[in-house]
Amino acid sequence: MIADMILNIMLIAAGAVMVFCPYDKIKAVFPRAKSEILVKILGLVVMGVGVFAAAAEFFAS
Is the full-model pTM beyond 0.85? Predict the structure, then answer.
């Protein structure tokens, strides 16, 4: 349970970095990133999955 919550927090943090980091810094780390919009949408999806999984884990226990 604790490990799952830590994984969910890491997912939320990774999504937040993708959403709030400037695109040129993301492009420096991932040179094959095609579009800023796609990176931001993917970051929001990752954050959503992390939040949903954390809520499910919290309410299941």
Answer: no
